[in-house]
Amino acid sequence: MQNKKILILGANGLLGTHLLNHDRLDNYTIAAHHGRGVEKGADLSILEQTTSYLNDIAPDVIVNLVALTNVDYCEEHPNIAYLTNVKVVENIVYWIKRHDQNVHLVQISTDQVYDGKGLHSEQMPALKNYYAFSKYAGELAASTVNASILRTNFFGKSRTSKRVSFTDWLYKALTKNETIQVFDDVYFSPLSMNTLANMIALVIENEITGTYNVGSRQGLSKAEFAFSFANALSLDTDNMTKSHIDKVDIVKTYRPKDMRLDVSRFEKALNITLPDLNQEIIKVSKEYL
Questions:
Q1: From 120, 123, 144, 204, which residue has the greatest number of CB atoms within 10 Å?
Q2: How far apart are CA 34 and CA 209, in angstroms?
Q3: Positive or negative CA dihedral for 201, 19, 196, 234?
């Protein structure tokens, strides 16, 4: 439906800047909050400002990318994590319920709601820190309306000066021959931001609802990821060493060690096959050439 209006909340973040410029959304009317094309500012943690803003925009689809993702900060400031990761969603849901039940909410969640040995299905959340708890609480709020809840992780070259991605950090460290440690006991299955933006567009087009894992197939340890990325760019890895997350002092808050996703439900819903992580790494490495 080409005349749909899509509102992207958090459009100036890592994923938002990719989604905002994604070719697959060219046939839609796009509005953006906190990003290029901002129509009006609003503090979405305040109900009155949220409802006024959404009344002005009157979107058919809301993609909520607003999130506080710093795990340590969430643990130390649970009230702020609640306002960003839960209250914002509750306010959006309040407006949808009172405005138009047919508005489609796409809520971006996290793979950190999982722990223990993967691959994890959607029925297996295990909340081990306040960040995960707050994102899951946001999911619960979103699930009371016509919503697609996407548990995911992503990487790729940042398009905003305000945020540095995992691969940005790796690339800088590797090209400057900095000494870094990468974890060989932490597993994940992220998608490139470009692929994830494409998946969000497909979700909007097909109007699927429910909770879905959206990631690469199988996944890798973060150490395997780092070495694969370096090899794809023929970068020297002499100063990059493998380590265990429990042995690193700078990690204050418990983080899951295995967040690999079972993506079969999402693949079945859209009749697609998601890429494996090595394919995604090779694709993203070309962004740095």
A1: 120
A2: 26
A3: positive
Judge whether 147 and 105 are in contact, CB under 8 Å. yes
- Half-sphere exposure of residue 239, counting CA atoms within 13 Å on the CB side? 13
Closest by alpha carbon to 194, among 9, 14, 7?
14
- By three-state DSSP, how is residue 109 classified? strand
Which range among 174-183, 219-228, 240-249, 271-280 shows the weakest confidence by mean pLDDT? 240-249
Over residues 25-52, the mean pLDDT reads 80
Q: Which of 173, 186, 177, 204 is nearest to 270 (CA)?
A: 204
Rounded CA-CA distance 199/193 in Å is 10
- C-alpha distances in Å from residue 62, one per residue of 57, 75, 161, 203: 10, 28, 25, 12
Residue with tokens 């204050």: 252
Q: What six digits make up the tokens of 45?
A: 């943690």
CA distances (Å), 269 to each of 8, 60, 84, 118, in order? 23, 22, 30, 21
> Closest Cα to residue 34, out of 70, 65, 5?
65
* Tokens 């995992």 found at: 166
What's the whole-number mean pLDDT along residues 191-208? 97
Cα-Cα-Cα-Cα torsion 206, 6, 96, 137, nearest 10 degrees, comes to 80
The one-character DSSP state at 217 is B
Output the six-digit token pair for 30.
Answer: 């796009």
CA distance 105 to 90: 12
The conformational region for residue 116 under phi > 0 = left, psi -120 to 50 = alpha, else beta, is: left
Show the tokens assigned to 233.
Answer: 């760019």
Q: What are phi and psi of 246, to 5 degrees?
A: -70, -15
Tell the residue number behind the tokens 């809301």, with chain if given: 62
